[in-house]
């Protein structure tokens, strides 16, 4: 870690209320130049509210927020001039062509028409939409629209790129293509802030992330640190077949409790959180239990996420 | 304030390409809808009904032909209809459907700039459509004096006077059904009862007073008195001040509405 790291987003005690509802209830964080920083959390955790404040389009209700060293309350336009924003909903102009969406957007940043044309061609190449340049946005697939939205957010060569759920609703091919593009941006030195509720996305893209829940930060760290701190190295999944009821699962859990640091009972399986999954399996068999299926896997961010935010549906 | 205005001019320049592109995409359709209806009125009322009115004497209209009486009113009504049309559905689209306003304020543009850009485009639409309509009116002999061409700036002022408040109204609606109210209880009655087709003094007193509240009446009265050469400077000044007040207050309200909707 460099000692001279520069904080592009400096947040202390940040709050956001809408009427009586507190969407963000006091969070602290720093996003360092060059990193990919993630916000994870269930719906309603306060991720998008935080993103809008960082995007300098939503006034803060309390605390401190500095973006690129500037105060969004007084320097909103100067901050936004250096940001790229890829919103959760596509806000493309669907009746304009793909290329026009880029050239017109560049004009909002004060680029000359020639610069806009040049940038548009580069970016269409970058997101593999050159052949669609003249097509109306209406006719694009969901994945193509997301790529175009990302291209549009890059038109001003931003220092900081905000991506609010960039791959929600995309098929696996489109997601992997987008991840590849985002990875290349990061290699090129663009600082990324990403919200997502896909754990694999966070693990793929983020150097560091926070898990938000109920307007607060529940945990912070690199994906590996979070797994180390909030889960075990491995997870053993035991399935006892469809005839074994939930009540029996509770009884079974009692028998294997001491074999793992933590045991979680689900309707169809038991999860044993342990640093050595195979050893747990052997011990289970030694005790005469005969699970129908056994899976030993590494812990993922998903385990961390569910541990921190619970399995209850938030709506 | 000076800094703010310079910023607004610069930001207006930055939005110009967007509006130009939108116009290139839609101008054919708007040409037809902006001219067809007023042309039909001009032909049916001015020429058809006009020949009937004229043959019975037009003393009540000040002795001019019916066509010359209604032409300035039709011009102003056209301005109102275009301005209202452009300040309703397109504004809701920018906020809710296509959300292009949201993409604009993620850039250095501010909500006020977005309002000025939208109003600027409406001004352009009103001005160009009314200019062409004015040429047609002139060809039909609808202007009594050359001063009647001043009906064009009056039409522009009226367009701006109604666009601001209607755009502000669009920001508080949840869906577009509220626009039907604007047309049914605002645009259509104003069109019929603001003196475009007959002097409002013919109306019962209370409706006559409603007509004086409507910005359309002020524009009709002003552009007609210019065309017929019956300008009373004090009344004309009153008309202009009244329309300016609608424009300024309406724009202020629109900026407030856009800010509330776009920045939260």
UniProtKB/TrEMBL annotation, chain A:
Record's Gene Ontology CC terms? plasma membrane
Alphabetically ordered keywords of this record: Antibiotic resistance, ATP-binding, Cell membrane, Membrane, Nucleotide-binding, Translocase, Transport
- For this entry, the protein name equals ATP-binding cassette domain-containing protein
**Pfam families associated with the record:** ABC_tran
Q: Name one GO biological process term.
A: response to antibiotic
- Coiled coil spans: none
- Top-level division of the source organism's lineage: Bacteria
The topology of this chain with respect to the membrane is: Peripheral membrane protein
Give the subcellular location.
Answer: Cell membrane
Q: Give an example GO molecular function.
A: ATP hydrolysis activity
Cross-referenced PANTHER family: ABC TRANSPORTER ATP-BINDING PROTEIN, ABC TRANSPORTER ATP-BINDING PROTEIN NATA
ABC transporter domain residues are: 9-239
Cite the InterPro entries for this sequence. Answer: AAA+_ATPase, ABC_transporter-like_ATP-bd, ABC_transporter-like_CS, ABC_transporter_ATP-binding, P-loop_NTPase
